[in-house]
Amino acid sequence: MTTQPYPIGTPGQPWTMQEKQQWLAMQSLKRSYFDDVVDIIDSLKDEFNVEQYGELNYAANDYPLFALKTRDWQDDKPVVLVTGGVHGYETSGVHGALRFLQTRAKDYERSFNIVVAPCISPWGYETINRWNPAAVDPNRSFVPDSPAPEAKAIMKYVADLGLEPLVHIDLHETTDTDNSEFRPALAARDGVTHDNWNIPDGFYLACNSESPEPAFQQAILEEVAEVTHIAPADSQQQLIGVPLVIDGVIGLPVRKLGLCIGFTQAAYTSTTEVYPDSDKTDAKECVDAQVAAVTGGLDYLLNR
């Protein structure tokens, strides 16, 4: 199935600055990063070290960027990086990262140094967008000289820590709006044609195809399966058009694509994908699944 023409631009012609400004003018604030995210971060200041690692200055809005670190930091412990909200519209990624901090992170601080950046794209969170205001996808921008300040800021912060993460889990969703809005917008922006993909009904993972660590991915899926259902493969034994590494897991060239889990040399990496539009789940279960993904991965490493 092919997407319908997007209401901005001319089919077959990439957007100029004029079309990007037209797209930006259509966006509006729909929820509050400060009420939904920053207030929770503030409530955790007695339990974690809260560090502002940057600020995004977009039109009339300034968005401070925060990371939280476990207090019992020791240089000889492995570092775990958890990121959420790279795509700001993916709600359970943001709130899953926060819920992990609220409920489970301290259970692991004796064994790991944990860093959580719960909302990398706060403008995208507020406007329910995949892109930033310049029509740039942060999760294709984890590259040198990144065009996305969201990606640039977190990459610099992690580099400045001076420690290479052992683990990086990036929390995402795949939603019906991927087909109804975001893929049509992408095709229009780039002046190309995109076919809709079959959105998997359930939770799945995307790993680094160059270093898939299938046992690590399987441990995550087993923990998540206690919370919500795992997405079955389609008739081609694929998910979103990509062959399976194992059931419930696809592999992607993450560095080539500029994906978040590719910007460090972490040995154990995974991108979660929750399907919140399924009639088999709800918002709380999606958040709980994100927490289970992180704990499943950490438990695997502790039990090796």
UniProtKB/TrEMBL annotation:
Keyword Protease (UniProt): yes
User: Is Metal-binding there in the keyword field?
Assistant: yes
Any Pfam family hit: AstE_AspA_cat
Give one GO molecular function term.
metallocarboxypeptidase activity
Q: Which UniProt keywords apply?
A: Carboxypeptidase, Hydrolase, Metal-binding, Protease, Zinc
Protein's GO biological process: proteolysis
At the top level of its lineage, which domain of life is listed? Answer: Bacteria
Q: Where is the Peptidase M14 domain?
A: 29-304
Coiled coil, from the record: none
SUPFAM superfamilies attached to this UniProt entry: Zn-dependent exopeptidases
Name what cofactor the protein needs: Zn(2+)
| Family note | Belongs to the peptidase M14 family.
Question: What is the name of this protein?
Answer: Deacylase/carboxypeptidase superfamily protein
Lineage of origin: Bacteria, Pseudomonadati, Pseudomonadota, Gammaproteobacteria, Alteromonadales
